[in-house]
């Protein structure tokens, strides 16, 4: 009877975990949503470049040189154009693969089935997950997480073919986003924890046999990255969003911010401090009472994978925690498993304790998802995408004859023309496949009118009114029409 209840309970937890992961992203598959932001600008950067100029092996700059993610976004655009829904459907395949790999990694590192399922369900419920998994511009974070988890899992294999596969996945992860550079260190810690009572020489030989290829790749890339540092220091000002500050204070502030962000508590002042303090006590008790070194590994992995972005004091994004938060959830799951094992429960019913903790963890995830905080974030994103869809519809209808090198002026008042902010007007450049189109936005109408009047109109010029609902209306234009194109007059 107990075994039947156990199987039924695990089945129920698996269903709940899947539902939590699905509800976290399914909202973005509704009709009427459109691309925006980096989803357009990243594609514009790569669309006319030859593939060998994108898929180079060695980095050409210290940050934002990520050919694997750029290739993914370009392929999705070439296959589905501006159809956000179809692009997202394929993009979510990577996200759900990450959920499956996270479950496998949790199990491989000793987490019980109930708590592993709960950890995946909790991950799928977070607003940081929903934000990243539905934003094609986060391809670098989502795809790098896929390669990172795959590299760790294969690196723990018992045959050389898995070790080679792990090194290859490490290379792909490293060319997708920079935080993957810590993979060899994470694998080293995991392997050292598994060698038992072997001597230092035997331990070093065992680890070196598995990871020599990883460290060879790491050495090459480290030298390459270090060669960019002098130029970066000379050209990147402290006001630049990508200015690096490796001071301990900046790193600790960033880690505290991102940890609170994961649990939707970054804006709650003293409550955030108390929450983080309580979370620390849970981890400390689990480590001391149960002597679980794996908790320390998970916390180390969380800090290391966040370290590259933790050194950016001028820019902090929810997208950055998509992959690293899995390790924080791993630490939480191991801690809860340890606490459940310490409860005085009779052996036949011992499965019920971790199952109860698993239910509590997923209930916490559901509470986060249904909170006003998450609903407001998702509602804002949905509204922006709907607004962009209206703008795109009107742009296609009213700018069908826009010529090469046209100049576009958009009067938006106090509203933000979301579709046009990337670039600006990367959407129009993609629509017409013309990089010479220029766009002026987010300026007082008086200034825009003066700029329009002084514009000689070579290539055509357009003055548009933008309304808060995303609709566009051409107020006036001056251009030489292409054959068959609709005419717009008069001049102001």
Write structural notes for this entry.
The relative contact order is 0.11. The chain has a four-stranded mixed sheet with strand order 2-1-3-4, with helices on both faces. The longest helix is centred in the middle third of the chain and has 36 residues, at 200-235. With 492 residues, the protein is mainly alpha-helical. It contains 20 helices and four strands. It is globular and about 80 Å long. The protein folds into two domains: 2-377, no CATH class; 399-478, Rossmann fold, CATH 3.40.50. The chain has helices at residues 2-26, 38-46, 51-54, 67-80, 84-108, 113-125, 127-133, 139-155, 160-174, 183-192, 200-235, 248-262, 270-290, 293-310, 325-342, 352-369, 372-398, 418-421, 426-432, 445-454, and strands at residues 407-411, 438-440, 461-466, 472-478. 64% of the residues lie in helices and 4% in strands.
Terminal Cα separation, in Å? Answer: 83 Å
What is the overall pLDDT average?
Answer: 87
The helix content, as a percent range, equals 55-70%
The SSE string, one letter per element, is HHHHHHHHHHHHHHHHHEHHEHEE
What is the count of DSSP helices, taking H or I runs of 4+ residues?
20
Helix/strand/pairing class, anyone? mainly alpha
* Order of strands, widest sheet: 2-1-3-4
- Total tally of structural domains: 2
How much strand content do the residues show?
A: under 5%
The gyration radius over C-alpha positions equals 26 Å
Shape: globular
**Biggest β-sheet: count, sense, barrel?**
4 strands, mixed
Would you report the number of β strands? Answer: 4
Low-confidence stretches: 481-492
């Amino acid at each position: 009877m107990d075994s039947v209840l156990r199987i039924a309970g695990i089945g129920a937890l698996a269903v709940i975990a899947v539902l939590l992961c699905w509800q976290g992203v399914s909202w973005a598959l509704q009709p009427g949503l459109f691309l925006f932001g980096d989803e357009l600008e990243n594609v514009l950067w790569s669309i006319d470049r030859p593939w060998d100029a994108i898929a180079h092996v060695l980095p050409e700059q210290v940050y934002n040189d990520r050919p694997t993610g750029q290739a993914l976004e370009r392929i999705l655009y070439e296959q589905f154009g501006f159809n956000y829904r179809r692009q997202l459907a394929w993009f979510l395949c990577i996200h759900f693969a990450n959920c499956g790999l996270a479950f496998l990694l949790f199990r491989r590192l000793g987490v019980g089935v109930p708590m592993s399922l709960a950890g995946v369900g909790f991950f799928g419920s977070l607003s940081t997950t929903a934000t990243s998994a539905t934003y094609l511009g986060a391809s670098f974070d989502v795809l790098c997480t896929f390669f990172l988890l795959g590299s760790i899992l294969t690196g723990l294999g018992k045959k050389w073919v898995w070790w080679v596969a792990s090194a290859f996945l490490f290379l792909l992860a490293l060319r997708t986003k920079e935080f993957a550079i810590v993979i060899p260190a994470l694998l080293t810690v995991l392997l050292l924890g598994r060698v038992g009572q072997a001597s230092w020489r035997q331990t070093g030989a065992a680890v070196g046999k598995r990871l020599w290829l990883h460290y060879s790749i790491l050495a090459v890339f480290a030298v390459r990255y270090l060669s960019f540092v002098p130029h970066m220091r000379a050209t990147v000002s402290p006001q630049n969003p990508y200015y690096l500050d490796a001071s301990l204070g900046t790193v600790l502030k960033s880690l505290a911010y991102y940890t609170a962000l994961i649990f939707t508590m970054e804006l709650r002042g003293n409550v955030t401090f108390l929450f983080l303090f309580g979370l620390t006590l849970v981890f400390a008790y689990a480590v001391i009472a149960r002597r679980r070194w794996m908790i320390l590994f998970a916390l180390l992995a969380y800090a290391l994978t966040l370290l590259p972005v933790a050194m950016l004091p001028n820019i902090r994004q929810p997208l950055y925690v998509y992959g690293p938060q899995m390790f924080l959830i791993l630490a939480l799951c191991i801690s809860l498993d340890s606490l459940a094992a310490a409860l005085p429960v009779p052996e036949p019913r011992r499965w019920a304790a971790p199952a109860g903790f698993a239910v509590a963890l997923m209930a916490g995830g559901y509470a986060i998802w249904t909170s006003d905080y998450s609903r407001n974030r998702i509602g804002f994103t949905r509204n922006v995408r709907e607004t962009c869809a209206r703008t795109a519809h009107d742009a296609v209808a009213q700018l069908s004859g826009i010529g090469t090198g046209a100049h576009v002026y958009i009067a938006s008042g106090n509203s933000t023309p979301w579709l046009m902010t990337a670039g600006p007007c990367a959407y129009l450049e993609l629509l017409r496949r013309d990089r010479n189109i220029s766009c002026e936005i987010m300026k007082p109408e008086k200034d825009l009118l003066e700029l329009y009047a002084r514009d000689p109109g070579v290539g055509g010029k357009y003055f548009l009114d933008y309304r808060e609902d995303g609709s566009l209306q051409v107020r006036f234009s001056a251009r030489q029409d292409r054959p068959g194109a609709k005419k717009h007059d008069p001049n102001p």
